[in-house]
Amino acid sequence: KTAKFSVRDQGPGISPEDQDKLFKHFQKLNTQPTGDEPSHGLGLAIAKKLVEAHRGKLSVESRVGSGSTFSFELPIER
Question: pTM for the full model?
């Protein structure tokens, strides 16, 4: 069994090329942050490491112009 958590936004979406870079350290994307906030390319890489350390999976589903859904799944143990 797993528990799945998802967050969906209605932003500009993420291109397939940028999706390949999302979870890698220090990668800058072609899309601009929606609030002009700074980015160092670490947040999602760190999040992925944390989720994987708990035997989970972090993923994104996105299309340009249609927003993005970020999800992570963690195993449930009894």
Answer: 0.79
